Amino acid sequence: MLSNDKNSQNTDEKSVSINHEETHAGDACEVELTNELNDVAKTQTGDACEVELTNELNDVAKTQTGVACRKNDELTIEIEDVTLKGDGVGKINGFVVFVPGSFTGDILKIHIVKVEKSLARAKIVEILTSSPFRIDVDCECFSQCGSCVFRHISYDAELKLKQKIVKDTFQRIGSINAEILPIIASEQNYYRNKVSYPVGIVDGKVVFGFYARHSNRIVEHKHCFVQNEVFYNIAKEIVDYCNERKISNLRHIVIRQGHYSKELSVCLVVSSKTAAFEDLRIPHTLNINKSQSNVIFGEKFVGESIVTDIICGNKVFLTPDSFYQINTAGAEKLYEVVKNFAEPNKDTTILDLYCGVGTISMYLAKYAKNVIGVESVKNAVKNAKRGKYANNIENVEFFHKDVKDFSFVTGNPTDTQLSSTSDPRLSTNSSEISINDPNLSTINYQLSTILDPPRTGCNCIAQIAEMKPHRIVMVSCDVATAARDCALFQKHGYKVEKIQPVDMFPRTGNVETVIQLTIGS
Fold it and tell me: Residue 474 in contact with residue 25, Cβ under 8 Å?
């Protein structure tokens, strides 16, 4: 399934409720994920048993006035709104129904496929009246593939929907009514610089493609409009090689190409190390992943593969598991927003948390006094430092730390704290990062913090608030967690000034946001 490739991390902040089944239909329903819907119940002795869901819960949707619908009913519905996942939302006798592949204004004949406690799910049988926003679908896999969910509507309609969802989500989850700037569009086709193809066995044959919607079933394809066009032919050659040699331990094919450099890397994720790929003519590295989880990479790589690329004028170094925005042209637009929201000057110190391979840090370095990047992934920090030296940037330093375990202080470090870096103002010990700059010791020093956390959100809100940066700029790939985290920052005295949606992933159910927060008096 397509993603923006950000590793997940746990948040240690107090939870603010997020309803991930966003209806955006005037709070049509709040989805309750209850134990009644779990597949397995634990007894007091630790034994599991299969839960028998009753017909009332499983197959019949009831309202106060009677039965709304039953499983396998065929009904007529008008679509009133759409979720970010691409599900149209309508009501039958007041009961909410989700219909994939539909859009606002559709009148449909539907088949109820599942009834849950607070909603039902259905599939389209016939389009009786078409939404004015519908267009002809250009992808033969659209009805099966779970990646692009908006190829059936105009791009203008998709942008307006995403703009609305950002506004509604911040209001609903965070009670935030900040200025929402007009969404920034991207090129719709062939924008992804990386693909992770799942590989499996179907009818005795090795196949690759994308996962079907809400499934681990692989949908084969010959052409994908959002992927780099060279990826399919590379993957096909690898899979043909596997079928010729009866190789069955390949789990994923991960391919990356530099947007500007055009350099390619291929990584084969396998369940066990073998010599099976020694004759493969495509240069590649191996990753060994023996786990049964859905995480793509295991810890062990065999060989090293580094792609270099250029973003915002800086050279970057990327290994197969590096987080790097998959839409390079879109990322350059996004970074410009980050710079404008941070408002750096030559008196500004920028703290870039979750900095990855340092793309934002290096970009902002020329506008700020100095930049400190903090990242928990060791290889990312290694590549960030490679970029620093390759681009001759002296006022940026990168540290390998978990952001939640890190603290920032000003003042003069002791000699034993000084590290051998190109910038003598920067030093580190086991828990603190210090800047040896007397100008930062005053109460009015200018500290800006950039956050680009994983999809699960920011796990160091209290620590950041304690440092009292005068400005925070958050980049988020999940609008719900962004709204939750901004609500938490507001409890620490920050105000959300403005929000910029950026459509980094056209035709998919994702939207990026950049948020500017300032500290109150």
Answer: no
Token representation of residue 439 = 């100008």
CA 129 vs CA 77, 100, 105, 124: distances in Å: 10, 16, 8, 12
Report pLDDT digits (tens) over 86-100: 999 999 988 999 999
Give phi and psi for 161, each to the nearest 5: -65, -50
What's the rounded Cα separation, in Å, for the pair 292 and 112?
33
Lowest mean pLDDT among 144-158, 430-444, 472-486: 430-444
Nearest to 90 by CA among 25, 157, 139, 40: 25
CA separation for the pair 363, 340 (Å, rounded)? 12
**3-state class of 313 per DSSP?**
coil
CA distances from 97 to 124, 200, 480, 520 (A): 12, 33, 21, 43
**What's the residue count for the chain?**
521
Helix (H, G, I), strand (E, B) or coil at 264: strand
Q: Which two tokens stand for residue 221?
A: 């394809």
pLDDT in tens, 341-387: 999 999 899 999 999 999 999 999 999 999 999 998 888 999 999 99
Query: How many whole angstroms separate alpha carbon 438 and alpha carbon 459?
Result: 30
* Residue 481 contacts residue 162 (beta carbons within 8 Å): no
CA angle centred on 95, ends 94 and 96, rounded to 5°: 115
Q: For residues 492 and 408, what is the distance between their CA atoms, to the nearest angstrom?
A: 18
d(CA 373, CA 409): 15
pLDDT, tens digit, for every residue of 413-440?
332 232 333 333 333 333 344 444 433 3
**What is the rounded distance in angstroms from the CA atom of residue 252 to the CA atom of residue 270?**
7
